[in-house]
Model the fold of this input.
Amino acid sequence: MRVCAKRAFALCGLALFPVMSMADWTMNMSPGVTQTSNDIYGLHMTILWICVVIGVVVFGVMFWSIFAHRKSRGHKPANFHENTTVEVLWTIIPLVILVAMAIPATTTLIDMYDTTEADVDIKITGYQWKWKYDYLDDEFGYFSSLSTPRDQINNRQTKGDNYLLEVDNPLVVPVGQKVRLLMTANDVIHSWWVPEFGLKKDAIPGFINEAWIRVDTPGTYRGQCTELCGKGHGFMPIVVEAVPQAEYQTWIGEQRAAAEKEKELTQKEWTMPELMERGEKSYQSTCAACHQADGSGLPPSFPALRGSAIAVGDIAGHIDIVVNGKRGTAMQAFGKQLNEVDIAAIITYERNAWGNNVGDMVTPKDIFDYKNQQQQ
Amino acid sequence: MSEYQKYYVPDQSKWPIIATFGLGTTLFGAATIMVDGGQGGSTSSGWMIFTVGLLLMAYMIFGWFGSVVRESRAGLHSPQMDRSFRWGMSWFIFSEIMFFAAFFGALFYARVFAVPWLGGEGDRGSSNMLWEGFQATWPLINTPDPSLYPAPKGIIGPWGLPLINTILLVSSSFTITVAHHALKAGSRKKLKLWLGATIVLALAFVGFQAEEYMHAYQELNLTLQSGIYGSTFFMLTGFHGAHVILGTIMLTVMLIRISKGHFSADNHFGFEAAAWYWHFVDVVWLMLFVFVYVI
Amino acid sequence: MSTVADAHTSEHSLGQNHDHHGPAKGWTRWLFTTNHKDIGTMYLIFSFGMFLLGGTMAMVIRAELFQPGLQIVQPEFFNQITTMHGLIMVFGAVMPAFVGLANWMLPLMIGAPDMALPRMNNWSFWLLPCSFLILVSTLFMDGGGPNFGWTFYAPLSTTYGPPSTTYFIFALHIAGASSIMGAINVISTILNMRAPGMTLMKMPLFVWTWLITAFLLLAVMPVLAGVLTMMLMDINFGTSFFDASGGGDPVLFQHIFWFFGHPEVYIMILPAFGAISHIVPAFSRKPLFGHASMVYATCAIALLSFLVWAHHMFTVGIPVAGQLFFMYATLLIAVPTGVKVFNWVATMFRGSMTFEAPMLFAIAFIILFTVGGFSGLMLAIAPADFQYHDTYFVVAHFHYVLVPGAIFGIFASAYFWLPKWTGYMYDETLAKTHFWLSFVGMNLAFFPMHFLGLAGMPRRIPDYALQFADFNMVSSIGAFLFGATQLLFLFIVVKCARGGGEPAAANPWDGAEGLEWTVPSPAPYHTFSTPPEVR
Done:
């Protein structure tokens, strides 16, 4: 019995140890790396100290009273129950403090709302459950999703340093320039927050909210979605790389070239193994969160694809549900989110993986034609 | 205090628990109809539950109000109890006003903020880049995404049926007041006549409103699904219409009670409550006429 | 059955003086009752049951968050359980508890024979079990229960909600109907049933705060009904209130919801303010300082509560002018709230204090509610709110307002009035243990959440980055302690109700004043059938 308990204790200790040693005890807000975040930090500390001082004074009086005016010490109660002077004072003084506090807050707020004269425009779109970054001036864009392996989340693997705060493709911004961010969402409300920038703005489907940042120090900054957006809400982090101007220009050049290449791929003749290979990759990053890596789904919300009527049935129906989604369910319309190559690859993969052996394949051209046909 | 007439506290009553089962069953049934129907399934079990609930509710309303009426006629209601009823009814009407306020608020927000923003005006005007070609107008005769929310071909102008309806409802407020004065003066015949007139006006209103809806749905393609204009239009006028029907039922019950000889010149709160409710319905209509139809 | 009910009653009451009637025998007593004390008891029992149910869900949440990684529940279920926890605590535990206290105490405090509309009172109560039966049953439906947070923001709750959302909407409609009828009853009782001589300004503060609360309920519960109806229409009938494709706006949902939601916050705290204003003077043996200013402060808070809703939505992108207006209005609320706290401290000042359980809970209420108020002040600063919003800082804030605020207020009231309800004193040692364990557990659970939020942990996530691990573990341990302690409260109350303590005098407290202490303990089934004279 005792040995058992000891063992259990040791086991618990072992389980807790890595967690305890890795974590830290951060207690306060970070001053951040932008002017705005510094201003916010200043406001935060001011109001915090005001509260502490008021608290100490008021509860100082109270505790002294609790100590001195207790029946057990034989204190006889006084009988006063109002005093106009005191009452007026403790109405006026807080009012004055609040006005004093409101002034710097107003200045900061107005500054935060000034999105004019930006050097770079980036459109940020929230999806269930990833972000898309579109560089409006340079006409390319890409998705950014969680790169922490499922095995770490399910405790089958040791968690890395940036557990849940790492993505495949970070947002890249130039240092020292005013970047205007146009926030929107594709499905539900998300919220884009990077604490070090002092920026949190809701991404609302159908509307655009503007915000801006100017990062002064190069580095990697991490944040998370802060508006409940469904089951993957805790799993759509934000990573921003702030890089010097020259490096930024090089990166932009590369991205534009890559975007050109992708376009050409649509025209290319694809073979089955090529499509399957690309399909598996795209499926894992886009579809696996709901339909699971092995196509087994999470019924009833997220149906299985393995052996499903759609995945092994008529090819047009399969293309339709992937491109247009199914309204009223979690199945989104991927027609606008993914390029033709990825859609074709994913459909091909779904029809031929996990024992689905339809044997046919869908080419990017098929998708291209299907979309055109729909528009007419 | 000279003499205190005891405040009547009924010992026990079965009606509240029946009312609970009734309301719960009705709404559970309604939800079942909607959910099953929405998934393309059969709605028959939902309708069955819903109907049972409605029957329970009807039984409860007859029973509960019946016992209150009996108690009133047995003289159990002190002046203080009468005041309780008055406060109760007033605050109930206040809560109804707040219910309508939510829908008026939605209308105001859509017109002043949401639609102009989507059309590219004001603080969040950059939203327009998501809706190429959408222009903000009110009434909203195009929608940002016509494939999901087809736009109406036209809207209901204020100076046809709505104006007639306004005249009908405003006159009904006068007729009910005349009826009330007749009741206080003790002239029962006049009372019945004017109350009857009020009910006729109310029914005419409901009839015209139904005609207007048919016109909107069949000819104008103005439906619940035609964007925020259709949504606010039908929800506001629809809830108002439901309240008119409820008010008409109340007035009809009063007419039946009056023909049975209920109420006296100085004890007729039931009648007054119905009249208050009727005035409330009337005022809501005036707001509707101005904000939904005219402006 | 009908013979039991009205027909029978009317015959009796016509001829007989029914003052001497005790409660009916058997279970029909509770189903058919019109007695404010019976109904109050049912409300209190129901709310405690819901408190334990919602608390169990909180324990599941804290167990999942004990360590990083997913171990106990999957994210889908985590979202359902957080949603249910919020809904049950707000609509099932805190609000009914205060209605229960109101039912028991208002007629006793103003010298009324019962509530103004006794049958409707019974209906208000029974609607609640009905509503929560439907609500909880959604957890077992296809696609699961509501998973969009207790604030059910569209479109997560409309286009993207589970099929059970329609049931959720009707369940809340029923709870809303119950609240509205309860409020009509309270407000009519207070305005119409006061004993002769009890002018408005002589009214005890619990009555005052409930008067204002009832007004707030009547003003905002219908607005909640309105927004729920719009959701229902968006889901089932193709309207586009919250869909930009049809010209609506998801933010419209938030505006209407918080127009209800902010006054709702005061609905959950004002009655506690009232109760504390009775308890502090009683155990300080000194009259309440600033009775009139307390009344004015309550009115000011209630009025301001209609003008501050958008401070819950500083990050949705409302235009800067609106942002500034809501920031200023929110800051203003601190003034009347401050006045209340100062008044309580001034009441204690130079009193002759003893520290029985009600007083301990009351003092903890004052301090910890103020801590919640301070963080509220910080949240009111719009630019700073961009950092706090939707993080654990907010979770810490509203739990400080609701747990040591509303819940401690309810515990303090329960201990204060238990002798009046049961006729026996509760076990003081156990009650003090209950207090200290709750106090420690609650602070351990919620204080570290401030740090977590400031360090950047978003709320409503089932798993978190490693730097948040330590404080989360501390918080979970505190939560388990707080949760387990509440079983002790159940034991204390059951023991007291079964007569396990000293018989209580009509007024068991040295310094307590008011009409409720002039009737014997336990209070007879019918009290004040003829109103007392108040001078």
Remarks:
- The radius of gyration of chain C is 23 Å.
- Chain C has 16 helices and no strands.
- The first helix of chain C runs from residue 6 to 15.
- Residues 1-19 of chain C have pLDDT under 50 and may be disordered.
